[in-house]
Amino acid sequence: MNSVAGCADDALAGLVACNPNLQLLQGYRVVLRSDLDSLKGQVALLSGGGSGHEPAHAGFIGKGMLTGVIAGAVFTAPAVGSILAAIRTVAQVGTAGILLIVKNYTGDRLNFGLAREQARAEGIPVEMVVIGDDCAFTTVRKAGRRGLCGTVLIHKVAGALAEAGAGLKEITERVSVVAKAMGTLGVSLSFCSVPGSSKPTFNLAADEVELGLGIHGEAGVRRIKMATADQIVTLMLDHMTNSSSVSHVSVQSGSSVVLMVNNLGGLSVLELGIVADAAVRTLEGRGVKVARALVGTFMSSLEMPGLSLTLLLVDEPLLKLIDAETTASAWPNTPKVFVTGRKRTRAAPSRPSEAPDFTTEGLLSKRMALVLERVCTTLLDLEEYLNALDRVSGDGDCGTTHSRAARAIQEQLREGPPPASPAKMLSELSLLLLEKMGGSSGALYGLFLTAAAQPLKTSTDLPAWSAAMDAGLEAMKKYGKAAPGDRTMLDSLWAAGQELQALRHPNANLFHILTKAVESAEAAAQATKDMTAGAGRASYISSMKLDQPDPGAVAAAAILRAILEVLQNLESL
C-alpha cells in the first residue's frame, strides 16, 4: 500500500476507476451509483462500515442493490459527517426515502443512528435496520448478534424491493423479517493483519481453529483442533442449527435455504470448493433443500485465512427477490434453479468398439504382466530418488507421479491379466496413465503409448516394434514441444529409439539390440546433467543450478532396463 492512513481511500479510488457505474462523493469517503439522478421517486439504500471487508460494501452498489456506501478506515465505523453527506446527496435527487442498512456493531449503530436523526430533523425520510446474523453465541448478549456476511443478502432483498417500486415502510418491515430468518458462523485458521498494527488480534496454536470469530479479527467463542473440511463444516452447521442456542437458525428437514460460503480473505478458491461441497452434502443429508448456493468472497476480513457459512430460510417470493437482476459487480451470476434435486453427473462415454485381438495367447499375456510388475517395482523403489532430482529443477514430485502410475498399474493387474494383444495393452495402459498418473508425465506417456499402439495393430514382428517406438517419439515431440538435447525424458527414449532402428534389419538379434538400446538410454539420462534445459519446468531454471540428471530421463531409462531384464529372464527359462 502507499500509506496506512490512505489505504481505504486508495482502495475506493481503484474500485471507482475501474467501474464506470460508480462515483466518489467529493470530499467524503462515499461511493454512489453514477446514475443517481435516475432514482427519482424510488427508495434509496445506503450501507457501509469499516474498510477491510471488501468487496463489501461498495462491490454491492448497483441497480437492484445498494444506492451508495459510506466507508470508514479499516475496521472503523464511518464518520457521521460522511453518512449525512451521503443521505443529503441521495435525498436531493428526489428519492422516495432512504433506508440505512447497518451491521450490528456499536460504532456503526451510533454513527449511522446519529446521522439518521440529523437527517430526519432536516425533513428527510430515513429509516434504519440493524442486521445481526451471528450464530456464534448461544446465550443472550446485551450487545446483540454481530452483523456478518448475511448483511449482503439483506442488500439484495432490499435492492430488489426498491427496484420493484416498494415503499420505504414496506422495505423496512420486510427486510426486518428476513433478517430474523438467517444466521452466519465464521471459522479461521489464523488472525488477520490490520494495517499499522504489529500485534495479532488473537493467537492460535498451529493445530487449532477459531470458531465463531467476527469480521474484525476479534476472537471467537471456541477453539477446536484442526480437522478435515467435512468435520469442520458439520461442526459449524450443528452449532448454527442447534435449537438450544438463542442465535440458531431454525433449519430442519424439509426447509429450503440459500447457502453462502464466504471467503474471509485468505483461502484459495480450491478450499472454498471443498467446503461448499461439504456444506451442500451435509445439508442435503439432513433433508434440507439448498435453493441457491453462493460461493465466493462477499464480506472479508482483510487476508484472514478463514470462511463463514450463512443460511437464509427462503420461500418462493423471497427467492424471486434473491434472483432479481442486479448490476452490482460483486454479486455472483448464480443459476436461478434449485441446487438440490439437480443431477450432478453425466454418464461417461462408452469406449469405442475395438477389433478382436489377433492373438489370444495366454502365455503372451502372462509375460506382459511380468514386465509390467517389474516396471512398477522399479518405479516404486525410485520414488524418493526421483523426487530429490526433481526438487532441483521442478516441484519435487516426479517420483511421486511415477509411483502413482505404478500403483494404478498394479491395481489393474490385480483385477485381471493385461490383454494379449500388444496394441490393446498399450492403448489400455495409455488410458490408465492419462487418468491416474497426472501431470505432464502422464500426458506424455499417454501420448507415447497411444501412438506406439497404432503400428502394432497389424503386426507384432520386430520391425513393427521399431515403428511403434518411432511413432511414440514423434507424438511426444509434436505435442510436448521437446527435442533431443532439451534435457527431458525424451533424451533417454530417443537414444533407445535410435538403437531400435536395427530391429528393421533381417536376422536382427533382439537381445543384442535391446541391450544396446537400454545402455544408450542410461547414458543419455546421465548426459542430461550437462545439458541446458530447453523444455519443461527446468527450462526456467538457470543451467548453473542443474548439476543432476533429469528425473524424467532417469525414470524412462529405468523402465527400459526393467523391461530388458524381465525379457532376459524369460528367455533363459
UniProtKB/TrEMBL annotation:
This is Triokinase/FMN cyclase. Keywords: ATP-binding, Cobalt, FAD, Flavoprotein, Kinase, Lyase, Magnesium, Manganese, Metal-binding, Multifunctional enzyme, Nucleotide-binding, Phosphoprotein, Transferase. Substrate binds at G50, S51, G52, H53, K103, D108. GO terms for molecular function: ATP binding; FAD-AMP lyase (cyclizing) activity; glycerone kinase activity; metal ion binding; triokinase activity. Catalyzes both the phosphorylation of dihydroxyacetone and of glyceraldehyde, and the splitting of ribonucleoside diphosphate-X compounds among which FAD is the best substrate. Represses IFIH1-mediated cellular antiviral response. Residues 366-565 form the DhaL domain. It catalyses: dihydroxyacetone + ATP = dihydroxyacetone phosphate + ADP + H(+); FAD = riboflavin cyclic-4',5'-phosphate + AMP + H(+); D-glyceraldehyde + ATP = D-glyceraldehyde 3-phosphate + ADP + H(+). Residues 3-331 form the DhaK domain. One of its GO terms (biological process) is glycerol catabolic process. Its EC number is 2.7.1.28, 2.7.1.29, 4.6.1.15. Its cofactor is Mn(2+); Co(2+); Mg(2+). Homodimer. Interacts with IFIH1 (via the CARD domains), the interaction is inhibited by viral infection. SUPFAM superfamilies: DAK1/DegV-like, DhaL-like. It holds the Pfam family Dak2. PROSITE patterns: DHAK, DHAL. The keyword Protein transport does not apply. GO terms for cellular component: cytosol. The active site is at H216.
